[in-house]
């Protein structure tokens, strides 16, 4: 059978990435597309790279007809998403790509996002969408919250280590190099080519990045005690990809063994041989995450490096992976395309 | 059924691109890989982005076993290719990605490549691999010669116009912006990031580029008289893509109509609405070619702009498209993935 | 003596480039800076790369005091510039970097810019600022109009050839590769890193680019008859530089000789040996223009390639060169810094 | 007076950068250039961006005449440099840009570089060239060893803090983003544009990078006890610049005060206001180093970020700064040019 899919907010990068991926999915069909500011336009006008596809014209959300829609992806801005989703049919399966349902705690949400949540009951219902770790919950979920792309990268490096208790929980430093598409298609001076190209800078330094809310929630739950990491993202002149260099205290070989056994059989997470570490150029455009471990010269210190594509495994690919589970499809359907290199 | 595929010269960019594409093909399987200088290595070592695939180890060509192989792609360097192919089983279907069998004329080959051809009888047998224009010949061919990537781009812009006689044959100028992967993985100073990034320069200026041999052969055959174009390629700081800006004399509307009717129904060639023109960022990683026409302010002059991905539609995607035809598969199988943007 | 300099519109790229250059000038001092939308801010806040300089705070133009100012650079947007300059002290020396005073003809201005000129008498007074060709007029001018950056590049390739009558005036094609800083610091979707990087596209195709007004004016004046060129600019993923590939009909050796003798003794225009051609990476950040000539394989056709940095020789460097002349300084003062490579 | 300068190894990036800087120096003249593999060529052939300069032809080192030379810069490969310098006139002032004389200890040199030192007595004589901290020794030195570019960046962030005892010496992590020109003009696969662009990866992970030898030497000497830092460099797709993100334990305000008072009056080191941090795009092509401090959300943890241009402040600019001191010139002569942005 062919599932009918709606995409809300199809005029942004994650929306376009969803269309790209679904076009390669044998059992899904894009049945409705919204993009409020571009309603009435074709996708070919908004994203000429999708010109060859036969796609519905963009509408407003209000004009969308959800009859017969099997699942909706919401690729709307933060805060807008919760308001829109609260009004959608209550039996519609939804994968939300915004930040609105990532945090389970009302107070934590308000702390990191600065406003009270508009749909706290949905916040409770939502399942955190890091597929490899919430697979069973996702299968039966109606509403899945896509993770932050930085948050996903860091968790692939760290979750098994925290769960297994093989690293010092008080001494975790995540240093990330992030490509620019993670910031979306918004018109900001620091995203201009002339500003960013030949540049590199840290942002949200010192513990102010909202994805810390996810790290705190997930790592503390895993550890059974509060865990606070240090996290410094950097913007680099590349379009896709996040490279997380994670400094931990623990035995490198034990760490490698732990990761390897945790990800054994996982279709999308590749643990590299001991001592090797990944590059973002090797996961571009794909749903794969590469993880490597290197021992430091200092005893009981290790560096874990994880790489994924922020638009694919970090958001739209993860969303499709979750949608597959929610619809009873094989988790990997439409997602096994190899990375594009060079 | 699943066809068994061999790739000779799998350690270069076009070889890796073939593996990427075939991994997405439901009826093909990579059964043998050669890479003389990297024999004994796994593809994951040579191309870590293919790490998730279950692939044969690289061997030397001599060690390759062609029993049961349905088709071989040769992604070897120019001149090496003709020597190798001459020794392959004579009933093996072959798609050659080198320049060795693009020119039908022995003298033309020697003029452009500087050496006598080592397999002139095969040179005669080979079918020129620009699929849309040699489709029937390719279906029944044993040996297909992949076109040059620049040559392909220019021909998509010009062939229908020359065939229809709607442009001045003596006043054709092709100005190309070419991404760097077209130069392959060879270690040359001008291909270093520090040299190329923030740079742009013309090369093979004045009519010395070897792809002119293809333009001369094909355009003259189409016109039934000698046609010599001017052709200036430029290297730009991008990894994939060729943008051909073609200056012609003729009526822009007639030109657009001619292109539109020629490519009607073609799965991979998209003619844009009159007055629009393409960008390489919208065909990246895909087998699509976008073509646009704009009228110049000067009467009876038009600009035709064509864009394709040199590694896909310009070489490995084209090769797979041809292989599909040679094996009786649907031409588009494994090739309909949407471009990767951004 | 030290000249006191004012810069109006210092918060854009050409304004910042002027500050960079003047900081290296032994006899000039930045005495006043305006930036209406950033009034009250320091330059270090707007352009952190100028942090080490002791500069005046940005003011509004209305708050600027022109007493004691020897010369003002106007780096304001088109149309705003003419309105502002019309109200400046009538004895103030001015170098305007906008498009407002490039065209001498009132009707031509209105044709290309779509509005009647607000200061037609100043339009008549202004001297066209292509230093090498208007040197004497510039020395005695009060108001100099900086040329378009594309217009400058094309003219360095063509003016001597048109003046000498060594090329066919009806068959000139200018194909340009332009870096992104030429579009300024404005927030446009197609200037985002994620859109432009790994991209390349033509713009203003077909003869709609406003710099054609300059080409028409200057080339027709030189030839003593109307000359209309074809001109297609392309945006490439680089920050600085314009590469003009110019297709002309004429004898390549005569063309090279003509350029060489025309630019003999010019401090900033370098004619390369016959058959060589330039790259934008070799003029980055400098006031130099490199010009090369290559013969095409077709008789009596040649390719002239010119390269310059759009922000330096194409605008702010040219402006300073002109200011030097207007103030009686040596033309090269503060401008001999070598290009930055890599 | 004009000092006569020789540059040995002028065909690499640091050699070219020296020529660029000296061209802007009022009291220095490039009198001799060597480049063994390019002997007989002009600099315009090797580095077309220097085409406008009147420079000596490249010779072999053996053919160089040191009569009348006031100072030589050695921009030779590691290991070659010590062999060449050992044979130079013993009264010649020398600034070496290689790694050969950075380590004072014979055993440390052998440990990090894998071979016994060929000129151990010179190793003892050499002064470490981090100008701001060895100024007096450099003034009277005959042989100055330029620091590693990564080593310089890290030291600007850390030396004052270690000297003042305001951070935990056992918990220092340096995470660096390094532009590609630091790897020189050598032909390596991972330096190709097609490999590096759109990529990012760590290298020398786990404490194997040779610049650690410098960190160990300098930080231990400052602290009066062994100090071992963790250091992970990353290669990013940019040409110039190093961004060091340094994780330390200590009070952020104290750290900021310490840096600010240490660099008070330094012409090239700019400490940003508390809470701000630098970008490599704001120091490109200049001799400036920007340093910022941000408090982490976790008590007594801070992030210090330092940025400099690896080819200028990180090597050739530093070298010229030292040469100025050695010749009795003002330290800043020829080095005050503003960064090139965008």
Key phrases:
7-stranded parallel β-sheet; 11 helices; 2 domains; 342 residues; alpha/beta; 7-stranded mixed β-sheet; 14 strands; 20% strand; Dihydrodipicolinate Reductase, domain 2; homotetramer
Chain-wise SSE layout:
The structure is a homotetramer of 342-residue chains.
Chain A: E1 3-8, H1 13-22, E2 28-34, H2 43-46, E3 58-59, E4 71-74, H3 80-86, E5 93-96, H4 106-113, H5 120-125, E6 127-128, H6 131-139, E7 143-145, H7 149-164, E8 173-178, H8 193-196, E9 201-202, H9 211-223, E10 230-235, E11 242-249, H10 252-262, E12 269-271, E13 289-295, E14 301-308, H11 312-326
Parallel strand pairs in A: 1-2, 1-4, 2-3, 4-5, 5-7, 6-7, 8-10, 12-13
Antiparallel strand pairs in A: 8-11, 9-10, 11-14, 13-14
Please trace the helix and strand order of chain A, writing H or E for each element.
EHEHEEHEHHEHEHEHEHEEHEEEH
The CATH superfamily label of the largest domain in chain A reads Dihydrodipicolinate Reductase, domain 2
C-alpha termini separation of chain A: 36 Å
Using the coordinates shown, work out and report the CATH topology of the largest domain in chain A. Answer: Dihydrodipicolinate Reductase, domain 2
How much strand of chain A? 15-25%
Structural class of chain A: alpha/beta
